[in-house]
C-alpha cells in the first residue's frame, strides 16, 4: 500500500482503485474544513462502509468536499451506542469490506470514540489503519510556545473542585509539558486549581477555538491566566497547555504566605492539610509550621 507517488499525488489503496479491506480511522478537521488530508478524502470516497461519531457532521464534511454517499451504508458509532454498533462494523469487516471511521472533530481515539472498536478489530485479526491529520492536542502544543520535546496528554479533568485538585496534583511534578481539555464553563475554576497544585509562576497557555474564526491563544503564568479568566464567560473548545514541572523547592516565605491565607478562614489542621497537599510536602512538617505561626501571632 502506498500513500502517494513522487509528485505527491494521492494513490488508491489497491491497483484497482478500491480500498483494501480493513478499518480506517480518519482524522477530521477541528475547525477549518480544508484541514482534512487528501488521503483522508480518498478513504472517505472509496470506503465500502462509513462510520462516524456524528453522521450529520460527516455528511456535511463530505458535501463540502464533493464526496457523494452513493447509497453506501453509514453507521453511527459513539460512546453511548458502542456495544450495539460495534457488531455492525465487525460484520462488515468479516465480509471483506473497507470501513472508514471518523470522529466528530480531530483524531479518533484521542479523547474521541474508537478505542474499543479498534481493539475489537485487532482482536479479530482485521487490518487497522489510520489517515492521520488534525488534532487539538498537537495544534495547541504548536502555538503554545512551550516545550514540545516531551509532553503528556491528560484529557479532561474531573468536574468537581476537590476531585479536580486531587487529580491535578498527580501531574504537578511530571517533567513534561501537560495538555488538558476543559469545558469553557469550568476553565476559570480549573486555572485556579492549577495555580494551587502546580504553582502560580509556571508558564501556560489557554488555546480557544483553534483553526476556527475566533481562534485565540492567551499565554502567561498560571496565576496571570487564572486572574484573566476569573468570572469571565468563555465560549468554544478549550485546550490548556502547562509547562513541565521543574522540581522547584518551596521556600518558607511561599509556604508561610499560603498558610497565612488559609489560617484566616480555616483551622490549623485543615490549613496544614490543604497546603501540604498543594505542595506535595509532608503534612507533619507543614502542620508544625502552622502551629508556630498561630502561636507567634
Automatic annotation (TrEMBL):
Coiled coil regions, renumbered to chain: none
Domain RsmI HTH: 252-293
InterPro entries assigned: 4pyrrol_Mease, 4pyrrol_Methylase_sf, 4pyrrole_Mease_sub1, 4pyrrole_Mease_sub2, rRNA_ssu_MeTfrase_I, RsmI_HTH
Protein EC: 2.1.1.198
GO molecular function, one term: rRNA (cytosine-2'-O-)-methyltransferase activity
Subcellular location: Cytoplasm
Keywords on record: Cytoplasm, Methyltransferase, rRNA processing, S-adenosyl-L-methionine, Transferase
CDD domains the UniProt entry points to: RsmI
Record's catalysed reaction(s): cytidine(1402) in 16S rRNA + S-adenosyl-L-methionine = 2'-O-methylcytidine(1402) in 16S rRNA + S-adenosyl-L-homocysteine + H(+)
GO cellular component: cytoplasm
Record-annotated Tetrapyrrole methylase domain positions: 23-226
Function: Catalyzes the 2'-O-methylation of the ribose of cytidine 1402 (C1402) in 16S rRNA.
PANTHER family recorded: RIBOSOMAL RNA SMALL SUBUNIT METHYLTRANSFERASE I
Entry's family note: Belongs to the methyltransferase superfamily. RsmI family.
Record protein name field: Ribosomal RNA small subunit methyltransferase I
Organism of provenance: Paenirhodobacter populi
Encoding gene, per UniProt annotation: rsmI
